[in-house]
Design a protein that fits this description.
The longest helix is centred in the N-terminal third of the chain and has 29 residues, at 51-79. By secondary structure, the chain is of the alpha+beta class. It has helices at residues 2-8, 12-16, 20-33, 35-43, 51-79, 90-103, and strands at residues 110-113, 128-133, 146-151, 154-163, 167-171, 174-177, 180-181, 184-192, 195-203, 209-214, 227-228, 233-237, 256-257, 261-270. It contains 6 helices and 14 strands. It has 2 domains: 2-103, no CATH class; 110-276, Umud Fragment, subunit A (Ribbon), CATH 2.10.109. 28% of the residues lie in helices and 28% in strands. One of its GO terms (molecular function) is serine-type endopeptidase activity.
Length: 282
């Protein structure tokens, strides 16, 4: 039981064994380690490109979590029969778990594999990404986020392009938000999966920009009806605009309600191209 509790929340197993001081020490160390993974992005969004930093930070977190679990097991062995104290109550543990999720004591990262090319060129098939669940995040999903979404029991990765109240339409391959076509600059051409594609850099109203791929501006989903996003919902697209099933396909996909937004993508932690390991998708 002590090991299981320590797996869920750092230090909780030690508290269960009647070692509150030890539990507090492990909590403090964990709280200090967690920000190491986020620190680069506070200075520079592209700082995750330094693979050594993300690798060392994650290794430190994994080692710390393993140490906490092993320590809980050793403490439980030496403690013997437990004498329940006032804090050995389920509601105390539940409260600590809730606080721990806010502080990052509960494992704050999830990993997903990318199975398709719908988010190319930002994410490629075979990539593994590290994500921050929105339930443990300090902010809501934002326009521009690359997000893991859950639809009909299946996880997808898409980019948020609009939120509740926005009007969205594709006109001649151009993404239009609230009647204004987003600026789009041609970057170059790309041979992708034996198909000639055109790369563009698309800019959001807040200045954030990212690359998208187009086969042409005359494909099936390049001209759509106008969609008004319901409140507490999101409109998501794939960056590979002519090879993505997304919110443009209303009958099969449609708007994403807030409860379908699972996590935002932070970093590529593994890729077939080693040069992309540790990079932050735009």
């Amino acid at each position: 039981m002590a090991v299981l509790l320590s797996f869920l929340v750092s230090g909780l197993g030690q508290l269960y064994c009647g070692r509150p001081g030890r539990a507090l020490l492990l909590v403090v160390v964990t709280v200090l380690l967690v920000p190491l993974v986020y620190l680069p992005t506070l200075v520079d969004r592209q700082a995750y490109g330094h693979f050594s930093w993300i690798f060392l930070a994650l290794v430190a977190l994994v080692i710390m979590r393993l140490y906490v679990m092993v320590d809980a097991w050793l403490v439980a062995r030496h403690t013997g029969a437990l004498r329940l104290r006032w804090y050995n109550r389920w509601y105390i543990y539940a409260g600590i778990a809730l606080i721990g999720s806010a502080l990052g004591l509960v494992t704050p990262f999830h990993s997903y594999s990318i199975p398709s090319a719908s988010m190319a060129p930002a994410l490629l098939p075979g990539d593994f990404v590290l994500t921050k669940p929105y339930w443990s995040d300090s902010r809501k999903p934002l326009v521009g986020d690359i997000a893991i979404v859950k639809h009909d029991g299946t996880f997808f990765v898409k980019r948020i392009v609009a939120v509740g109240g926005d009007r969205v339409q594709m006109i001649g391959g151009r993404l239009t938000i609230n009647g204004v076509a987003l600026p789009r600059d041609m970057v170059g051409n790309l041979r992708f999966n034996d198909v000639d594609m055109t790369l563009y850099r698309e800019s959001l109203p807040d200045g954030r920009n990212y690359r998208i791929m187009e086969l042409s501006d005359h494909e099936f989903l390049d001209d759509t009806a106008a969609f008004t996003v319901p409140l507490a919902s999101y409109f998501v697209l794939g960056d590979n605009r002519d090879n993505s099933r997304d919110s443009r396909v209303m009958k099969e996909f449609g708007y994403m309600p807030a409860e379908s937004m699972v996590a935002r993508v932070l970093v590529v932690w593994w890729a077939k191209d080693w040069g992309r390991i540790g990079t932050t998708p735009e």
